[in-house]
């Protein structure tokens, strides 16, 4: 009996020793793998530090290039005097640079936040603030009507034969926005014709392609006539002006009251077809008016933020949306 117990204990002891050897081998293998991971992690951390350093140096070089006195970057002290304390992490010039990059390239705020070393919320706040500043300081300097006599004297040959008194060409443009959370805003923005949520604005330009008027943004359901009447466009119309527009601009009476003339393609109404003279006039008007659409298209290509969709919080006031 005692011999059997000794034999059993010896067998268990041999099994435990075998398991111990297996565990020791496994422990050695794990220790080796852990050492390899530590070395790899150290190299990865070093790579990340070097990459972060290189990126920081490149970013500093970029900012230095824009801050160079010989560079043509906007001088915020001269062009945009701001008499307020800067509570942001970035200096004024970098804030303006961020805004211009967003307007031209429409990079996401996460991307801009990484580039400038700030948070996405800060990037969004800086962009909204500086767009308002740029509009307040530059709109009246850049967007204004040229002298009527000078405009007529330098009118392109395309218009001189049939539209010798041409002052401006007007058209509405659309930009899609993100769907708002408010049901009231959704109803105001949604366009059943487009099947989406756009905002509309009015643009006017001379025959040379000089921008003379940009309206606030209106909800996509508003008609072209409503936008013209509510945007204040008629306030800068003068007696004797000639304006080209599309069929949707039903403002002949309002223009006539101000002594101006509106030229649009003719409606066929109850006629079966146009006569030869009306057909020719109707053909000339769209061919001449097409240049405002090209002008708006060039603005979209230059400032990609206009292509949308624009975040609803960047549409600054509810009155602009629901006007």
Description:
With 323 residues, the chain is α/β, with parallel strands linked by helices. The chain contains twelve helices and six strands. Strands 1, 2, 3, 4, 5 and 6 form a six-stranded mixed sheet that branches. A hairpin with a 5-residue loop joins β2 and β3. α3 packs across α5 and α4 (109-116) crosses α5. The radius of gyration is 34 Å and the shape is elongated. Mean pLDDT is 77; it is low at 317-323. Its cofactor is a divalent metal cation. Residues 6-40 form a coiled coil. This is DDE Tnp4 domain-containing protein.
Termini distance? 103 Å
Catalogue the unreliable spans.
317-323
Percent helix, as a range, is: 55-70%
**Rounded radius of gyration (Å):** 34 Å
What would the average pLDDT be, to the nearest integer? 77
Counting DSSP H or I runs of 4 or more residues, the number of helices is 12
What is the element layout, followed by pairings?
Elements: H1 2-67, H2 76-79, H3 92-105, H4 109-116, H5 120-142, H6 148-153, H7 157-160, E1 166-176, H8 183-189, E2 198-205, E3 211-214, E4 218-219, H9 224-231, E5 242-244, H10 252-257, E6 261-263, H11 276-302, H12 318-322
Parallel strand pairs: 1-5, 5-6
Antiparallel strand pairs: 1-2, 2-3, 2-4
What are the defining features of this structure?
single chain; 323 residues; alpha/beta; disordered C terminus
């Amino acid at each position: 009996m005692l011999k059997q117990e000794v034999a059993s204990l010896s067998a268990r002891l041999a099994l435990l020793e075998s398991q111990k050897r297996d565990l020791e081998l496994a422990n050695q293998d794990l220790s080796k793998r852990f050492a390899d991971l530590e070395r790899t992690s150290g190299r990865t951390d070093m790579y990340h530090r070097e990459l972060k350093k290189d990126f920081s140096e490149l970013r500093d070089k970029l900012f230095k290039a824009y801050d160079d006195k010989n560079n043509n970057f906007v001088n915020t002290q001269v062009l945009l005097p701001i008499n307020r304390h800067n509570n942001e992490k970035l200096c004024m010039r970098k804030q303006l640079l961020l805004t211009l990059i967003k307007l031209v390239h429409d990079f996401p705020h996460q991307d801009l936040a990484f580039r400038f070393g700030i948070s996405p919320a800060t990037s969004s706040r800086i962009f909204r603030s500086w767009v308002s500043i740029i509009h307040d300081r530059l709109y009246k300097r850049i967007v204004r009507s040229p002298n009527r006599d000078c405009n007529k004297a330098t009118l392109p040959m395309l218009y001189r034969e049939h539209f010798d008194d041409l002052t401006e060409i007007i058209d509405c443009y659309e930009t899609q926005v993100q769907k708002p959370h408010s049901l009231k805003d959704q109803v105001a923005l949604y366009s059943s014709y487009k099947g989406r949520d756009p905002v509309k604005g009015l643009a006017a330009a001379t025959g040379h392609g000089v921008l003379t008027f940009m309206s606030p943004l209106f909800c996509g359901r508003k008609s072209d006539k409503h936008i013209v009447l509510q945007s204040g466009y008629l306030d800068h119309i003068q007696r004797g002006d000639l304006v080209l527009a599309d069929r949707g601009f039903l403002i002949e009476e309002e223009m006539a009251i101000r002594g101006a003339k509106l030229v649009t393609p003719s409606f066929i109404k109850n006629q079966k077809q146009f006569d030869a003279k009306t057909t020719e006039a109707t053909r000339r008007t769209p061919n001449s008016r097409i240049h405002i659409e090209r002008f708006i298209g060039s603005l979209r290509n230059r400032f990609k933020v206009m292509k949308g969709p624009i975040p609803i919080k960047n549409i600054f006031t509810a009155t602009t949306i629901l006007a």
